[in-house]
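Last lecture ended with a question: if I hand you only a sequence, what can you say about the shape of the protein? Today we answer it with a concrete record. The protein is AsnC family transcriptional regulator. Below, first the input exactly as provided, then the predicted structure, then a couple of comments.
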Amino acid sequence: MDNLDEMDMEILNYLQDNGKRPYSEIARLLDVSEGTIRSRVNKMLKNEVFEFIIHTNPNKVGLNVQVIVGITTQLGKQDAVAAHLQQYPEVRFVGAFSGKHDLIIQAYFKSNDDLVNFVNHELSKIEGVMNADVNVELKQFKDTFSYIIP
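The predicted structure:
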């Protein structure tokens, strides 16, 4: 699925607004049949354009410490370090970046003690990690998974 047309984008917008919105309602809003909506949604799901997920509020499930960690790796070790980091359930995101840090991760912890333990006893043991720049979130202004810009 190379190109999404205007109707696909509108369907995505409606689903991002409310992932539980019935296909019949989207069909009515777009003046097409429910089958058209179902078919297009299934095609986008099959082609991995999007997926249905539950986005939990970390604070409501006991994860009160969010961090962004910039990691400097030894030359040639970036892929191995990234693969190792992916195994930790606390780590939500791992990405390679240009700039000051070779890898940036986002992770959630129940407490500052859990964060300190992760940095001092887990991160420090990973071969190829040279430095970790830990940034604790103090206040959140926006958190979204919406990539569709109307």
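Comments.
1. The chain has two domains: 6-46, 58-136.
2. Residues 15 and 137 are 29 Å apart (CA to CA).
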